[in-house]
Amino acid sequence: MRASVLKALKTIELEERTKPKPGAGEVLIQMKAVGICGSDLHYYEHGRIGERVAKPPFVLGHECAGVVTKVGPEVADLNVGDHVVIEPGLPCGECSSCRVGHYNLCPKVLFLSSPPNDGVLMEYICHPAKFTYKMPEGLSFELASLAEPLSVGLYTAQKTSIQPGSNIVIMGMGPVGLCMILAAKWYGASNIVVTDIEPYRLEIAKKIGAMDTIQVNHEADRAGLLAEADRLGGFDMVIDTSGAEAAFDMAVNLLKRGGTIGGIGFPGGAKSTIPLLKMMQREIVYQPIYRYRHTFKHALALLEKEQEAAQLLLTDFFPMSQISAAFDYAASNKDKSIKVIIHPDK
């Protein structure tokens, strides 16, 4: 079978690998759609994220959907022909975090496409049935592949307690930020304001449910956002997908006393400067978000309901035979591209 393999920085090539066989509790899945994630691009361009280094040869990709083609022993709930998505994090199931259901915090988790674990940009993968979920009938493979980034949004909504009537700001309109809009709507937020520097992404955000859009590199827009926060007495939550210190400072100034920052984006360095005194005086809560847990079935249900909106996030499509061109395009067209989808069977 073919696999897309990172050979060096900005160099991905197709190579032949042995088709895997499912073991006990596993299914063999033919990959039909794989989304290029921001982390994939980071490994492609820089070779590392913090201390995690992608040592070639390495396979990227973890946002995916496909078809079950073979079922291993001890699998009861999946059958050949089922359309499925996978949850890419495989916890140990035995540590203290796993025992209380917080498996996203498992220190031994094997997360696909996070070094040293290969990802899914290949024609076939084997995956535990326990972390493989049937897609709703009629949902496309491309839309279903958004279940992974949408899971980040749903988990964030849960952890920050977004509820009917919430006034929120979402900073950064990459795929996760846009998925966050869908999640916030799902949980009943009444006022969703979003920020970015790219007009195209703000336009998409407006179409899928943002009530107001702020181009943060425009001084007048930033002033207007602060004025709106003052009028409201502060926003209930600010969700930051960028990790930038400037965004964090802005978030503190936008929040009401007792408000919550949901931190999705990783900071640029191992240490960050935060306005701790101001946060203490206002009892601002910082809620870190690390991946997700128990979200994929909810994500698939939401995608089934919001197909028209979610489709706007899928902007570009490439066969895996053009994998190098796909990554080059995703890396250099962030101003006009949201989510690039690879078709491994083409």
Automatic annotation (TrEMBL):
GO terms for molecular function: L-iditol 2-dehydrogenase (NAD+) activity; zinc ion binding. Its EC number is 1.1.1.14. It comes from the Bacteria. Its cofactor is Zn(2+). InterPro entries: ADH-like_C (IPR013149), ADH-like_N (IPR013154), ADH_Zn_CS (IPR002328), ER (IPR020843), GroES-like_sf (IPR011032), NAD(P)-bd_dom_sf (IPR036291), SDH-like (IPR045306). Residues 7-342 form the Enoyl reductase (ER) domain. Keywords: Metal-binding, Oxidoreductase, Zinc. CDD domains: sorbitol_DH. Coiled coil: none annotated. Belongs to the zinc-containing alcohol dehydrogenase family. This is Sorbitol dehydrogenase. The gene is gutB.
